[in-house]
């Protein structure tokens, strides 16, 4: 039963991704398409597959943390995990629904800090669980530059 619970919990990032996708879908074909965009803006179709992989990797990370024995280090890593996930889920609503590019930029910088914290604390508990989050950190680094550039170009 415990393993089943761990698997269910590890699917929560996909649920957050689904909700973020709903928020994104409402704005991407509306006001977003009219924004001035930088030359390095990826095509819209790329975001879904990339985020799906990243949310799956988040699920693997939380699963690997959950199966480790309880410890203060594991608790810190899990706190950072949940913080970054909540921030991640909120970004789409700030950017696409509220259309607040500046606040979304501030928020994505907080996500980046939380991801660094998650990787750093998770590394002390499970190196694999930490290292599989590096693509997420790289993507959010790119997304931060993109968000900041969109804000600068369109305010």
TrEMBL record:
GO BP terms: namely: tetrapyrrole metabolic process
> Where does the protein end up?
Membrane
As for membrane topology, the entry says: Multi-pass membrane protein
Q: What GO terms fall under cellular component here?
A: membrane
What superkingdom does the record give? Bacteria
The signal peptide stretch is none
Q: Which UniProt keywords apply?
A: Membrane, Transmembrane, Transmembrane helix
Tell me the InterPro entries matching this sequence.
TspO/MBR-related_sf, TspO_MBR
Instruction: Give the stretches traversing the membrane.
Output: 7-28, 48-67, 79-96, 102-122, 134-153
Q: Which family does it belong to?
A: Belongs to the TspO/BZRP family.
The protein's name in its UniProt record: Tryptophan-rich sensory protein
Q: Kindly list the organism's lineage.
A: Bacteria, Pseudomonadati, Bacteroidota, Flavobacteriia, Flavobacteriales
